[in-house]
Amino acid sequence: MKKEEFPTFLNEQPTVVFGRTTRELLVILVGLTGAYLVWTQAGALIPGPDIGVMIIKGLFSTVPLIGSIIVAFVKIASRPLEEWAAIGVFYFLTPKVYLYMPLEEAGENESSVNTSQYQLTRPGDGEDDEY
Question: Cβ distance 112 to 123 under 8 Å?
Fold first, then answer.
């Protein structure tokens, strides 16, 4: 009996249009949307149909577009930049030091530990904060 192998493409992203993946196309679409929003909002801040105003609006609106193209195509250590951004946000929001502080002093007669008596706090936080 002949054995067939089916490719799973686990390490490859399927291309959708122009050899680009869905992730890349969505990130570029978000950049185009941001560029359009900046263009329309800059028109409210800098009124006038002058060529100088159009150039300034064009320069401002290219910033989100170029940023999205960089995010879509640049990878560091085989991970896209939005994953690194999520890792960074998670790292900075996670407390670095935990201190053990009992809420109440346990009586001398108690032999069992009541877990509702304790809290974890960071240094410098208020005493009423619980984690």
Answer: no
Report the C-alpha gap between 31 and 1 in whole angstroms. 53
**Length of the chain, in residues:** 131
Whole-prediction pTM: 0.62
Do 52 and 31 share a structural domain? yes
Query: Across the 131 residues of the chain, what is the mean pLDDT of every consecutive 10-residue run?
Result: 77 83 94 96 85 92 96 93 95 90 66 54 58 50
The number of C-alpha atoms within 13 Å of 21 and in the hemisphere containing its C-beta is 9
Residue written as token pair 């990130």: 27
Say yes or no: 91 and 56 in one domain. no
Q: Please give the pLDDT value at position 112.
A: 52
Token code pair at residue 103: 């809420």
Q: What is the pLDDT of residue 115?
A: 53
Is 91 a domain residue?
A: yes
**Domain check: are 98 and 122 in the same one?**
yes
What residues have CB less than 8 Å from 99, skipping those under 6 apart? 120, 121, 122, 123
In this structure, the answer to whether residues 57 and 93 fall within a common structural domain is: no
Residue range(s) defining the domain that contains residue 41: 15-73
